[in-house]
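Hi team,

Filling in the usual template for the complex we talked about on Friday. All components are listed, including any nucleic acid strands or ligand strings, so the model treats them as one assembly.

SUBMITTER: L.P.
PURPOSE: interface mapping
COMPONENTS: two
RESIDUES: 974
SEQUENCES:
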Amino acid sequence: MRVKKSVLIVLLMTALILGGGISFAVTEWLFVDESQLETTGITEEQYTDMLNELSESVQLPKVVQAFNQIQSNYLNDVTDEQLIEGAISGMLNSLGDPYSEYLNVETMKSFNEQIEASFEGIGAEVSMVNGVVTIVSPLKDSPAEKAGLRPNDQVITIEGESTEGLDLLEAVTRIRGEKGSEVVIEVKRANSEELIPFTIIRDKIPLETVYRDLIEKDDQSLGYIEITNFSENTANRFLEELSALEAEGIDGLIIDVRGNPGGLLEVVQEMLREFIPSDRPYMQWEDGNGEKERFFSNLDEEKPYPLTVLIDEGSASASEILAISLKEAVGANVVGQTSFGKGTVQTTVPMGDGSSIKLTVMNWLSAEGTSIHEVGVEPTIDVKQPDYYYSSPIVLEDTLRPDTVSNQVRFMQVMLEGLGYKLDRNDGYFSEETAKALQAFQADEELTGTGELDQQTADLIQTRIIERIRSGQDDRQKERAIESIIK
Amino acid sequence: MRVKKSVLIVLLMTALILGGGISFAVTEWLFVDESQLETTGITEEQYTDMLNELSESVQLPKVVQAFNQIQSNYLNDVTDEQLIEGAISGMLNSLGDPYSEYLNVETMKSFNEQIEASFEGIGAEVSMVNGVVTIVSPLKDSPAEKAGLRPNDQVITIEGESTEGLDLLEAVTRIRGEKGSEVVIEVKRANSEELIPFTIIRDKIPLETVYRDLIEKDDQSLGYIEITNFSENTANRFLEELSALEAEGIDGLIIDVRGNPGGLLEVVQEMLREFIPSDRPYMQWEDGNGEKERFFSNLDEEKPYPLTVLIDEGSASASEILAISLKEAVGANVVGQTSFGKGTVQTTVPMGDGSSIKLTVMNWLSAEGTSIHEVGVEPTIDVKQPDYYYSSPIVLEDTLRPDTVSNQVRFMQVMLEGLGYKLDRNDGYFSEETAKALQAFQADEELTGTGELDQQTADLIQTRIIERIRSGQDDRQKERAIESIIK
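RESULT (copied from the run log):
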């Protein structure tokens, strides 16, 4: 009898720098195919025994000696836990692999939330509007919706404490909490003088990772599916939305994984098996000895319609597997910018006390067997977004005036150009022409036309830019993806 | 019978950022007063036994488990040593103290070289002149001098290999080596067509840390002593030079510790005992429980002449003890900029295999008992150097032209101002006025007057700036230090 065992395999990406100075850190993870551990043919008990045996045989006297020295002689107090976590993190750091890391009990919690694409809270999208924490919309069937919260409700207190002075993240952190626990918030609603109190019982809130659209153009219908993360339920949701689109009849499909940091390996594999026939591998992987394994589907035929995958600098890991394998195995177009370049697979090893270590165990390879690690997937059609997509936010200490030089002026220039104002330069020199464009913006927005960059003007420029990005009207990459199918 | 034991105590400063974007990392260290371990009253054997006992009693099963997991499952090969060093470094990192760190066998070697203010090599100061490694001067009595190397000799080969393409550090690294070993270099000398070969036996080369000068002004004589590091022999050398100055008769003394990163605690203590009488503490320290100890000299009287200490942002640790204690205990003036701010004392603990851990064990306090940690010593007379002292080097990718904006233009502007050229701005905007100043510089240096910033012009601007700094003609801090005594 073969013992089946699920092993959690993770793909992880850290500290990604985008153009324009925006940086962010994300985590991602993959389940491995269940067939994986079957091939080793050992039981879970045998595995545990082996581990214990190994633990007893190895001694780390030098580490123990250093541990004791620090505990006895260091100037300040230090806990054993702190040193032990430090030692484990230090061993993982010594590998020089940013994807191998220690996850303590708290980070494991958010790690699991990301894997499950869920969190514990009240289920309302909130935003900062004119300095006030405001409900954008309660999620469907969420505690927030059931309690009666409505769009545009202003959150004035949380647990009796004013939200004044909190930033959005601080407010969200206070609203969130364990499933089953209660939170009291008071909101101000238009047409109501008094604050309205709500007592809401927090629950587990699922996050959507798959969004579908049908694009009609030149008498053709294009399916469009955006995937924000490869989480536990993502493959099911993807196949659901794909079926719905196919039922309507589509002449092509665009899969958008821009900004998608990756996720569970099993999930992207399940998706690839829907597109790549059994006569060729849909992906491969390689262990530390260079031994390769090729993965095949049971699929008979390719889809009858052309495929395009949208990627950018923020597409990593599972997103990259999807893009390069569809490109190599079924000739999909890949539109956008060269992707992040993470070609390794991690597993999480529980340490028995709620913490885990995440460890790189495999290289994944494309359908044809190449690694994109630290290289990225090159698009077949290279398209950048307009410059303002990559601009950093404007951070002002003082009002900025003509004939000065600064990066903040540069960001403003790029954004004003994005909003359609004419400038002679965008290198950070605050020229006459720049002042005129700024005055024109101020006039259009009914602000005092100073031609100087003050906080109010900067905030409004950024609000307009965010609106413009959200409207999608300048999404050149998506336009080219549509053109790649409708010729 | 009391057993005497020397314990190596170190003050360490890492990653110091100066104004103008210049950053550097230095190490420093201190011996503690020998009286320190006597108070514990235990023998070295007892100490070792205690350590061993402790080692046996503590287990780190979670660390061992992580160690085994990494060794069995990590994608790439990894040595036990690497993981053990990683674990120790990780424990020290977890303290959040930049001065506690692991020193492996190699870093211990350069650490000891710094403590001893010596290195193993041939003893020649070298510089890069027109892209060629060139002997500036052989040190007195060094192997380089004995072998016959002379100033301006161009080093063409080292061990038969051309120096072309090497940077200065690479060349120096190849010339250096263990005491007793041989190195063959070939040099080109003016008035000689052929290369001249030299076979030089490397030796231990002591580094000078103390420099003396006698400044005559307004019929007064001022002693001036510069200290570059508090190394093993520094206190002796300092007292030697001080005696020589006092023998000539001085009306005041300037001690210059600008850019001095610190060193051995015992060394600065020995120096303080020469100036601060026995009726007041010359410094204090404090352990983790807040227990303080005050240190006293046997000195009867203060010096009959006034003292001034020169400090800057690069003066740290032992330099700061010297400055603040002379200020508080004998009313010395402190001239310059607020110092780095390192108020802790480290010890190195040998791990038995040539490596050590460096651990923060004490806070040192000023004569009056205040800590300057993360604050620095404030000067009594605040003086900045001219802006060009703090400028970053110009790094060009392309020739820079008028009506552009960049940091490189800013650095150039600051340097041209320093050289006496008139500009309308130094904010990085390449104005007409900037171009004119650049043309004037090019004319003065007999370069083509393009008014553009090319590599040749940039190199020459920097050469002139370095010459100007070395000449000391704009050393405002030193001028004010002299004025602080001669009123």
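MY TAKE: Residues 2-94 of chain A form one domain. Chain A touches chain B through 59 residues (CB under 8 Å).

Thanks, L.
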